[in-house]
């Protein structure tokens, strides 16, 4: 009942407050009530679905570590959260061992060998609508299976058979879907039928309803192959053959050689400081870590605590910082194996101090004055994130994606999963925005074998050499700013983890020249002040679905599941 009240409050409060803002009488604004998230003495897990969280907790209780739990969770999400927690995509992992050692694994998808720079353009050089977003040609070589297996191979302790079997059971025997999932399946009904045919098993005559049972028996077979044969169970044999045949059916580019040759990459995390905290995040080809550290360098130049939480002054400053950082993202960031990314320059405090020196707290800066460009729209995106702290003190932060809801909508027949539409994250034409309004240039142009730029920002924060925060979220271009705000909420505003996650989020990204504000409680006087500074304000239903963990001052662990924005669930012990 508590959750339903939260959701109703969030859904209607923004429109009510905007109405009140237009009236002459005093506002009746009430902020969200404070809330403490789930607590644990030794361990904590927060994921996008209760069943995945519970599988991870069981693994830890049976003696597994964070990397064992990560593998079990990843394959469980492939079943119970197919729109994003899928094995047909890719992602990034940042981890911290209990001795303070940190690392990062890049299992981002790669462009097929048959791909080419102008593959989504017509003969006149114009972008072909939806070709990089829907259907077989939008899919890149998936990396999730290779990545989670390599992470487990290096740091895990339990056998694959024990860790994957719970996901196989869920896929074969089925699970009951939530209201959110029923709505998602109904929303994508026409797209499923268009790409996979009218007889596709997720296309029903009657709408899906909460409590319906969903089974993925073909996926159970694929997971069994991985359980028994490891990496070869996905990138070779029958599953690789099924992926290749699906590509041939729909004119896609992924071949069995592409699958065989795919490999994840270990990378050194990027790190920086923020008010006495060490922030550890993902390096390129993710733009998340670099952009996050730039934003924090900018915020540290101001007294954010004194400016206040979600005041007009604070939101204005965040917007001005974000516009400059996202313009840098569009100019400089890409796959470091193909392009010399100037990470040192972008993280140089002198560079950023100069970059932010033109900010005025009295008026907005037009985005065109920062960098020329144009963007027409920003659409929704689907990714998923989970955070783990195990009883030994190891921490894992993992973000994975299919890109859009259910990716390309292409279901691999016989194998039981959806493929990504991640090719759209390349600059399909330099200067032209992707589906999330993000613009890129030469650094992110399409090349065979190349990894496309990402906004995923799995992050870990230390304080005085000790673990403090594990953070991350889905949300496309809003991922970076959501993590940025969560860190500020804890460090600057003294919030607990659940309050930091529940708080109303705002977002700006250079282009479009506007501020997105969630349809959640925000003082309407703030909106009026932002408009007076020259900002254009647009409401959004929600941004991100965070899954975070805070180590509190007494050493207990507080989970921060984004349960008011989705089905996230945290549990500790």
Give a verbal description of the structure:
- This protein is α+β, with helices and mostly antiparallel strands and about 575 residues long.
- The chain has two domains: about 250 residues, Gamma-glutamyltranspeptidase, large (L) subunit, C-terminal domain (Serum Albumin, Chain A, Domain 1); about 230 residues, no CATH class.
- Helices cover about 35% and strands about 15% of the residues.
- The chain has 20 helices and 19 strands.
- The strands form four sheets. It has a seven-stranded antiparallel beta sheet.
- Strand 3 and strand 4 form a beta hairpin.
Topology:
Elements: H1 2-21, E1 39-40, E2 44-47, H2 50-61, H3 66-80, E3 90-96, E4 102-107, H4 144-155, H5 160-173, E5 175-176, H6 179-187, H7 189-196, E6 213-214, H8 217-229, H9 232-235, H10 237-250, H11 256-261, E7 265-267, E8 270-274, E9 277-281, H12 288-299, H13 304-307, H14 312-332, H15 343-346, H16 349-355, H17 367-370, E10 382-389, E11 395-403, E12 459-463, E13 466-471, H18 478-491, H19 497-502, E14 506-507, E15 515-518, H20 524-532, E16 537-540, E17 547-551, E18 557-561, E19 569-572
